[in-house]
Write a structure and sequence with these properties.
elongated; about 475 residues; Immunoglobulin-like; about 5% helix; 3 domains; six-stranded mixed beta sheet; seven-stranded mixed beta sheet; mainly beta
Length: about 475
């Protein structure tokens, strides 16, 4: 039986390295043959690939041709890019160890271009920046999404022998084009959630008398509160997410004319983040799409009782940051997969004994994490914001010795009855047990203090 050649890929650098836009991928291809091999071709390739899988019920009403198969599986693989380097072609190799080098570079954009009607409007059809390495399971049986980058070596031999192929996966993470350190704040005026706190408990007759009284005298008008939510549209992992709320009283005269006007109070804050992941696969005539939603409660605070002055931005969070972990995948959109995030903030406010709840949902674009080596200014700013630790000063070892516990506390035998023996705790000064020399100065020793009524406590145990 013919032996199979030993084929290996060795990528330079750390095997846990995360590549970014423009990074080079270099390494070696090693082939060891134990007998003469008639080679058709040996090719090393650098590829990016997006694979989606799903399933749908297969049985149709009125036919039982394939009723035994409960579901129909769909799968689609879209190449993001592909670079090939041919190492050998139509040759015969003697039993020996061979080695070749390769050198590739991560491109900035994908390569394929699809028609306008392909995959619908939610997905890219033109070349776009590379998505990150990504893998997740869908809620459909057998459904998953895989975005992978790898170096592949394929050896094809003449005759009826099967080809030999191996892959070496590579981790890729995009690099943000904008290295902004501070998040840009956007504002949204919530006119649909305008609140009239004094009008909630009025009857129709009260409202009529109220309007008549306004005509008769120039009294103070009831407040009409319009909330405005301030939030960042784009954020990076580990970056502070500022969330602010400002209230505007459209009845401006009520503030100036009534000095005893009540003030709104911040009662509760709840922040929830929703992840939307969609994938599509199949033929143009049948493209089943899977939508995965995941809600994460990020923050929940109650009974705050924080005043909210009118016309002033009030911070809802303090040092609220996005955790940089495996779940924090940057927002992206490619040919068959999309990933986006929503941020929902619910704020409870009080005006006197009345309460009102403000709710706002915004689209949050999570940017790729910023490499530390690309942000020296950020590191300097963080170091400056933290109080530096004091410099280490060597101390005299003689002053750092631990106290001699034998001299502080000891168990000494006290004579008792013939049927029992007793032990008592005694101080270091009156200890009857011989101990080692005291290593702690006498001024630093702490003598135990006992109440006057019971100077010592005795425990007895039977022999």
């Amino acid at each position: 039986m013919a032996s199979t050649p030993n084929l290996r890929i060795i990528v330079d650098g750390d095997h846990l390295q995360v590549y970014r836009r423009g990074d080079r991928v270099t390494g070696r291809v090693i082939l060891v043959t134990t007998e003469k091999e008639d080679v058709r071709s040996l090719t090393v390739s650098f590829k990016g690939r997006c694979t989606t899988r799903t399933s749908r019920p297969f049985y149709e009403t009125g036919t039982d041709a394939d009723a035994y198969q409960p579901r129909r599986e769909f799968e689609e693989t879209v190449p993001l890019f592909a670079f090939d380097q041919k190492l050998l072609s139509e040759c015969t190799l003697a039993p020996k160890k061979y080695c070749w080098t390769f050198d590739f570079k991560f491109p900035e954009l994908t390569e394929p271009k699809f028609p306008r009607w392909h995959h619908g409007p939610k997905y890219h059809r033109e070349p776009h920046p590379l998505p990150p390495t990504f893998q997740t399971q869908t809620h459909v049986p057998g459904g998953n999404v895989i975005i992978t980058y790898f170096v592949q070596v394929r050896l094809e031999r003449n005759g009826y022998r099967s080809p030999v192929s191996i892959q070496e996966p590579l981790a890729y993470h995009p690099t943000p084009h904008d290295m902004t350190l501070d998040a840009k704040i956007a504002s949204r005026v919530l006119y649909a959630q305008t609140w009239k706190p004094l009008a909630d408990g009025r009857t129709a007759m009260d409202k009529v008398f109220r309007r008549l009284s306004r005509r008769a005298c120039s009294g103070t008008s009831a407040p009409r509160i319009v909330p405005t939510f301030h939030y960042p549209e784009r954020i990076s992992p580990g970056q502070h997410i500022p969330l602010l709320l400002s209230l505007t009283n459209s009845q401006d005269g009520s503030i100036t004319e009534d000095p005893t006007q009540k003030q709104c109070m911040l009662d509760s804050v709840t922040v929830t983040m929703t992840t939307h992941t969609t994938s599509v696969c199949g033929q143009p005539t049948s493209q089943p799409e899977d939508v995965m939603l995941k809600h994460v409660l990020c923050l929940s605070k109650t009974n705050l009782n924080t005043p909210i002055p009118f016309g002033t931005r009030t911070s809802l969070t303090n040092n609220f940051r996005l955790v940089d972990d495996a779940e924090c995948v940057p927002s992206f959109k490619t040919y068959t997969v999309t990933r986006r995030y929503d941020l929902t903030v619910a704020v409870g406010i009080k005006y006197g004994d009345r309460t009102f709840r403000i709710r706002c949902t915004t689209l949050l674009d999570i940017l790729p994490r910023i490499p530390q080596e690309l942000l020296p200014a950020l590191q300097e700013g963080e170091d400056a914001a933290v109080d530096p630790l004091p410099l280490y000063v060597p101390r005299d070892p003689s002053k750092e010795s631990a106290p001699d516990y034998d001299s502080l506390y000891s168990l000494s035998r006290v004579p008792s009855g013939s049927a029992s023996s007793a032990y008592t705790r005694s101080g270091s000064v009156s200890s009857s047990v011989a101990s080692s020399a005291v290593s702690t100065p006498s001024t630093e020793l702490e003598q135990p203090s006992f109440p006057e009524s019971s100077s010592r406590t005795r425990w007895s145990m039977p022999l």
